[in-house]
Amino acid sequence: MPNSSPRIAIIRLSALGDIVNSAVVLQLIKLHLPNARITWIVEEAFAPLLEHHPMLEKVVALPMKRLKKERSPKVLATIVSTLRRLGPYDHVIDMQGLLKSAIVGRLCGARLHGFDRRSIKERAASYLYASHSAIAYEANIITRNCRVVADALGFTCNPEEIAQKEPLFPTVALRKPLFEGVNIAIVIGASWPSKRYPNHKIVSLCEALPHPCHLVWGTPQEYDDALWIAAQCPNAHVAPKMDLAQLVSFIAACDLTIGNDTGPTHMAWAMNRASITLFGPTSGRMIGLTPHNIAIEARSDVDVRRIDRHDRSIMTIEVESIVHRALELL
Hints:
This protein folds into two domains: 7-163, 3-Layer(aba) Sandwich (Rossmann fold); 184-329, 3-Layer(aba) Sandwich (Rossmann fold), CATH 3.40.50.2000. Helices cover 36% and strands 17% of the residues. With 330 residues, the chain is an alpha/beta fold. The chain has 13 helices and twelve strands. It has a six-stranded parallel beta sheet, with helices on both faces. Strands 9-8-7-10-11-12 form a six-stranded parallel beta sheet, sandwiched between helices. Strand 5, helix 6 (123-126) and strand 6 form a beta-alpha-beta unit. The chain has helices at residues 16-22, 24-32, 64-70, 73-84, 99-108, 123-126, 141-153, 159-163, 199-208, 220-232, 244-253, 263-270, 319-329; strands spanning 7-11, 37-43, 58-62, 91-94, 112-115, 131-133, 184-187, 213-216, 236-238, 256-260, 274-279, 293-297. The model has no long low-confidence stretch (mean pLDDT 96). It is globular.
């Protein structure tokens, strides 16, 4: 008889946007397996996003970036010891498709499921899986996330179930109240410079929008950029420094988020809020596309398997086109 309370481990270590776009699987698992006991294994920097999630039994934070930076045998031994103490699990699912995530999964248990060699980023990882999903690498990221989990657990992923999702993360009190009326979040940062919309165009965007624009930043350089933008435009306001839980709540409180292809922008879809994501070297396959969550893509020939990090075509997106779509959504 199948286990009525299966223990499931999900491997999705990083990055922030990928974790945000993966969290929908928790609702799908609980919908089809209500008594499932779910562990999420994640890079330690992103663990605070998941730590208080009501659908997770446990969050395991691993110092993978610290291991890569320090190359410390002690850090490696801690990671291996932590993973070997976790099991046993009925199902272990690698949602990331990298060799490091596959190795992490194997340390949790032999029954590891992941993408097949044609569907995966690092093909060597597929040889560590006991079972596989064949899902085109070029497919939408939300579809891939949901399908690989559904295949592993033996249920069908219905697009309507995804469309009817509840907000994916709990919220907390905001550090600073928003203005009365409509508020717009503008996410100015990204992991690569080529994914960032230019600061001078953000100034023009804020000037053209009829509602307060809050500049969301994450690094000291982005904070300096936000200060510069706000100094040019009275309608632009620098958002406060926030941790991940506060950031989710801030995005959830705004009526619209406009931003680059990065984690904070993806949070709008996760929290069922309207969004416009701007793409240059990447494409709209990286977000949950709905009538209220849209992509504006530069005219760029994107190869999803060989992303050109020097492609600065995002700079060609016209401010007027963003404003037009924003007013439609609002």
